[in-house]
């Protein structure tokens, strides 16, 4: 399956894609107008890579993306979705499910079976109004998610889910196969038994958390696996300036004191060089040669504009040297030049 070049695509050299979780009303609702404005500004600014999942608003994110992309030339953009959670229509759904608010009238359950995967993709294509997906990620197969069922789930993914995706690839319904996870260790385990084209990894290669650096990223480079990084702001702690009484999140939970103190130390060095923390976080993630694109969860036109400015901000090389000297990032971590 391996590719000699990534499938991701942004015009004018931009390496930012649009992640679809906020479009599914993650934590707080977005109006239809707000979602379409976010999609329009990213598109007008050259973004052509979009990611979604049935999990995001129980199909709402897929539906909203489909409404926007349905008016575009199908060959002009790349769209990915995920499998692992199957949606079932229901007349009785809570207003909030799994942190998504006011989603579509579905309930979800885990299903990594061949038939479940096939139905999931067919349903996603229906909601998107498309005839094919550019990539499909097997979603959230880590031990933290599945607990005592982890080994069963992992075995089924290797023996059934991935082979079924291979068949769907041959049929032309999908073109690239990968994993969508926030645990780098499960990827290393999967690579012992399987191969894939692409990986979406959230939160494990960031300015705060470089746990994927030593083993996983070199392996992806050697295998020519296209890497999309998500969660480069670790769900909020790196997204804006920290204040002494900041109530910030790390991996979608209140940040622990250890992570908060590390973030403050990075910010203190950033202040010495007048560097924006968001800019440092984004450029650090982009600097690794394994990274093909960073997928951003954007809620407003302003957030997209801020990320584009962060991508372009000039950061002195001495800033990165100071971070390494203070052991805040590993010495071997690539930094922008």
Walk me through what this model shows:
The chain has 337 residues and is α/β, with parallel strands linked by helices. It has one domain (11-240, 280-314): TIM Barrel, CATH 3.20.20. Helix content is 38%, strand content 17%. It has eleven helices and 14 strands. The strands form four sheets. An eight-stranded parallel barrel has the order 1-2-3-8-9-10-11-14, surrounded by five helices. Strands 4-7 form a two-stranded antiparallel sheet. Helix 3 packs across helix 5 and helix 9 crosses helix 10. The longest helix has 22 residues, at 150-171.
Strand order of the largest sheet: 1-2-3-8-9-10-11-14
* Largest sheet geometry: 8 strands, parallel, barrel
Order of helices and strands: EHEHEEEEEHEHHEHEHEEEHHEHH
Going by CATH, the homologous superfamily would be NADP-dependent oxidoreductase domain
Strand percent estimate = 15-25%
- The number of distinct β-strands equals 14
CA radius of gyration: 19 Å
In angstroms, what separates the terminal alpha carbons? 32 Å
The chain-level mean pLDDT equals 94
Q: Would you identify the CATH architecture?
A: Alpha-Beta Barrel
Instruction: Briefly note the structural class of the backbone.
Output: alpha/beta
DSSP helical segment count: 11
Question: Ranges with pLDDT <50 over ≥5 residues?
Answer: 1-6
The number of distinct structural domains comes to 1
């Amino acid at each position: 399956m391996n590719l000699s070049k990534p499938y991701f695509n942004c015009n004018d050299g931009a390496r930012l894609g649009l992640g679809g979780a906020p479009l599914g009303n993650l934590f707080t609702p977005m109006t239809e107008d707000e979602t379409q404005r976010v999609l329009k500004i990213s598109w007008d600014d050259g973004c052509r890579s979009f990611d979604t999942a049935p999990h995001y608003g129980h199909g709402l994110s897929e539906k909203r993306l489909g409404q926007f992309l349905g008016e575009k030339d199908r060959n002009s953009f790349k769209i990915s979705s995920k499998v692992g959670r199957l949606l079932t229509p229901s007349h009785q759904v809570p207003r909030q499910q799994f942190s998504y608010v006011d989603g579509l009238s579905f309930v979800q359950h885990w299903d990594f079976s061949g038939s479940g995967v096939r139905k999931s993709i067919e349903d996603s294509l229906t909601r998107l109004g498309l005839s094919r997906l550019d990539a499909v990620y097997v979603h959230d197969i880590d031990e933290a998610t599945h607990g005592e069922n982890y080994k069963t789930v992992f075995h089924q993914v290797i023996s059934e889910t991935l082979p079924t995706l291979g068949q769907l690839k041959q049929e032309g319904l999908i073109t690239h196969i990968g994993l969508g996870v926030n645990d780098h260790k499960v990827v290393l385990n999967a690579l012992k038994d399987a191969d894939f084209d692409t990986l979406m990894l959230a939160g494990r290669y960031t300015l705060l958390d470089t746990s994927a650096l030593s083993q996983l990223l070199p392996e992806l480079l050697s295998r020519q696996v296209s890497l999309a990084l998500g969660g480069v702001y670790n769900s909020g702690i790196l997204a804006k300036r920290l204040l002494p009484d900041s109530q910030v999140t790390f991996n979608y939970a209140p940040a622990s004191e250890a992570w908060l103190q590390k973030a403050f130390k990075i910010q203190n060095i950033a202040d010495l060089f007048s560097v924006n923390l968001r800019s440092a976080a984004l450029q650090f993630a982009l600097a690794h040669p394994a990274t093909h694109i960073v997928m951003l969860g954007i809620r407003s036109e302003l957030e997209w504009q801020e990320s584009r400015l962060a991508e372009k901000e000039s950061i002195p090389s001495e800033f990165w040297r100071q971070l390494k000297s203070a052991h805040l990032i590993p010495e071997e971590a690539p930094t922008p030049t």
